[in-house]
TrEMBL record:
This is ATP synthase subunit delta. The keyword Phosphoprotein does not apply. It is found in: Cell membrane; Membrane. The keyword Transport applies. Coiled coil: none annotated. This protein is part of the stalk that links CF(0) to CF(1). It either transmits conformational changes from CF(0) to CF(1) or is implicated in proton conduction. It is a peripheral membrane protein. SUPFAM superfamilies: N-terminal domain of the delta subunit of the F1F0-ATP synthase. Gene3D superfamilies: N-terminal domain of the delta subunit of the F1F0-ATP synthase. Keywords: ATP synthesis, Cell membrane, CF(1), Hydrogen ion transport, Ion transport, Membrane, Transport. GO terms for molecular function: proton-transporting ATP synthase activity, rotational mechanism. Pfam families: OSCP. The lineage of its organism: Bacteria, Bacillati, Bacillota, Bacilli, Bacillales. InterPro entries: ATP_synth_OSCP/delta_N_sf, ATPase_OSCP/d_CS, ATPase_OSCP/dsu.
Amino acid sequence: MRDGTVVKRYAIALFEAARDKSDVQTIEKELGSVLEVWKREPKLVEFLHHPSVSRDAKKRTIARVFGDRVSGLTLNFLYVLLDHRRQDDLPQIVGEYRGRVDEALGRIHAEVETALPVSDEEAQKLRSRLAQKTGKDVSMRLEVNPALIGGARLRVGDRVWDASILGRLERFRGQLKQIQAR
């Protein structure tokens, strides 16, 4: 990412255009599928960067690859990114756009790492507590990470709550280093 401010401007502009058409969630889904192709097909990204390929040829390729999968708004947005040589910023723009959609719809995403598998009942209890505490709709991704040794680590946005044994050991190690440095 070259400039976070520019990324936000593109995301906000797309969000406002989508909101005007009442298509915020549709555009979010389309951007997700575009991003999947972007990540899965490095040759496409390489082609779009190639200096000897004309902008029109790049746009025709974008239309062939995505034309039947996305709306005109999303397709035109991809063209704008090409015109302004911002295609590298697509993953960050999509992330920022999703953040705007989440804010508008009152949702949050939580990533939960646990040392051992969590039952569906435990996961639902955690989701309910998060929804109660935040007042928002919660989508949750669970991941088993045996390296945590025990406990769990929760990430919501840029906040992390670490109640794992690994986290406790790391904090303890930091305290020991501070004592040794004295």
